[in-house]
Request: fold
Amino acid sequence: MISKTVIPGNFVLCNDGVYRHKSVKPIRDKAVKMLDHANESDIHHILETRFSEIADMDNRGNPTGTLCTDKPTAIITMATLMFYHGGAEIVADSKGKSWGISSKGYYHYCG
Reply:
């Protein structure tokens, strides 16, 4: 017998077929919009600073990740990993109050 999985109201089905907290999509969308301005010096400086905080600077293309507990940091982190590695993954806790943001590394997305 196949049972139906009950998904709480805070989760939505994403394009990749995975249920994620509804707070994930706005963070990703805002990160993509931030990337539209990544070549502006102030935005580029923000991305560069955040990347140096979370990445192994000796091996910049290696996988990395971090936990963010506020939306502005989550947006900047998502944009940073997308900019430097070409992609990123994001998950949220069940309340949408913290986000795990990670990258499989530059060579996974670009290489």
Notes: The mean pLDDT is 89.
